[in-house]
Design a protein that fits this description.
Elements lengths: L1 E4 L2 E10 L2 E4 H4 L7 H11 L3 E4 L6 H14 L10 E5 L10 H8 L7 E5 L5 H13 L6 E8 L19 E9 L6 E7 L7 E2 L17 E2 L5 E2 L5 E2 L1 H23 L8 E4 L4 H10 L11 H4 L7 H10 L2 H4 L1 E10 L3 E10 L3 E6 L1
Parallel strand pairs: 2-17, 5-6, 5-7, 14-15
Antiparallel strand pairs: 1-9, 2-8, 3-4, 7-8, 9-16, 10-13, 11-12, 15-16
Helix pairs in contact: 6-7
Length: 354
């Protein structure tokens, strides 16, 4: 499905990271593999360290800390917020919506729509699309988009597929109306037949957590995990990304009329360095235009990887200049989405720790 918007812009991006950084070498003793094999994996995938939330920290804690930072630094006024979107697969509760909890904490006005969106790897793009749809309404002038995931507690410490990959983080993106046309082209696709390729089998209403679901079992590759842990079928995910993402980006070039060589940066979701390099080659894009340094420095925090990539790699450049960005997310769902838009002259583009 294609989307087109105009007279909307991103006016600020804030990434909030946990303070705790864990090195790959510190965890590989838990894996049922030789050190040599583990180090080979580190080099191929680009693993180094990942950020892990402290015990008891939730997704909303990072969002709350980040929004308070923006308020304290006079980068946003609470009365300006007309909509609050919370995109996550690790909410505080089954009910109420975490967006409403955040709304109550900051005592936002009643004429402010709150919405939780259950999405992961493509959550930043889906959130931007939803923000733009809301901004088409006369009453909505500024949207606060939260992307947040604290999934590390759901990953087995003995799972070499997922443990060195997953990180925790949150981001806040301000999306608002503007006088400039600023065309935005977007698309999104979904294939629910592959929904269980990435999943946490137990813990919901279908299969509540129990002593039985906590039993650790070894898979064919030598990883140990329980039904309470994240399961990722790596080969299936890799094949899906290589099969579906390039045609989506090619379509975005056609949809927008923008040549691939005129895109300044390709800010893609970052499962690992190997996958991104393969995508760059398939799209005939120089690898240096697709940063692949988020997983190695912070870990894969699902939909938060794209705003983290923008904050980490562009920093103040985005305050003093403007860039043509192609953003894309792909994974859990299965969901894949991309957006072409100019982003620049923002009020802030920062990374903070909590």
């Amino acid at each position: 499905m294609d989307f087109f918007f105009k007279n909307k812009r991103i006016s600020g991006i804030l990434t909030i990271l946990p303070q705790k950084a864990v090195k790959f070498e510190d965890e590989m003793v838990n894996y049922n593999f030789s050190p040599a094999k583990s180090m080979k994996l580190k080099l191929a995938m680009g693993y180094n360290e990942h950020r892990i939330a402290a015990p008891g920290q939730t997704s909303s804690d990072f969002c709350r800390f980040g929004l308070q930072y923006l308020i304290d630094n006079k980068l946003i006024e609470l009365e300006e917020i007309d909509a609050l979107l919370f995109v996550s697969q690790s909410p505080d509760y089954f009910m109420p919506p975490t967006s409403n909890v955040l709304h109550g904490h900051f005592h936002l006005k009643q004429d402010c729509i709150c919405m939780d969106i259950n999405q992961g790897c493509a959550g930043f793009e889906l959130g931007l699309i939803q923000a733009c749809l809301l901004l088409d309404q006369p009453a909505v002038k500024k949207v606060v988009l939260f992307n947040a995931d604290v999934l590390s507690p759901k990953v087995s410490s003995r799972d070499r597929n997922s443990k060195p990959l997953i990180g925790d983080a949150a981001s806040i993106t301000i999306v608002e109306k503007c006088n400039e046309e600023n065309p935005i082209y977007a698309n999104i696709k979904m294939d629910g037949s592959g929904a269980l390729v990435l999943n946490i089998p137990a813990g919901g209403f279908r299969l509540p957590s129990s002593p039985e679901t906590a039993i650790m079992e070894e898979d064919a590759a030598g990883n140990f995990r329980s039904k309470d842990n994240l399961v990722m079928q790596g080969d299936e995910v890799f094949n899906f990304v290589q099969r579906e993402v390039p045609p989506m980006i090619e379509h975005l070039f056609e949809q927008s009329g923008i040549d691939r060589n005129n895109v300044d940066w390709y800010m893609f979701h970052q499962p690992n360095k190997f996958m991104l390099h393969k995508l760059a080659d398939k799209l005939r894009i120089p690898r240096e235009k697709i940063p692949a340094n988020i997983v190695e420095n912070f870990g894969n925090a699902s939909g938060v990887t794209v705003p983290t990539c923008i904050s980490f790699n562009l920093g103040n450049q985005l305050i003093n200049g403007e860039f043509q960005l192609c953003m894309a997310g792909f994974g859990v769902g299965l969901t894949w989405s991309s957006i072409m838009m100019k982003v620049g002259y923002v009020k802030f583009n920062d990374i903070i720790e909590f």
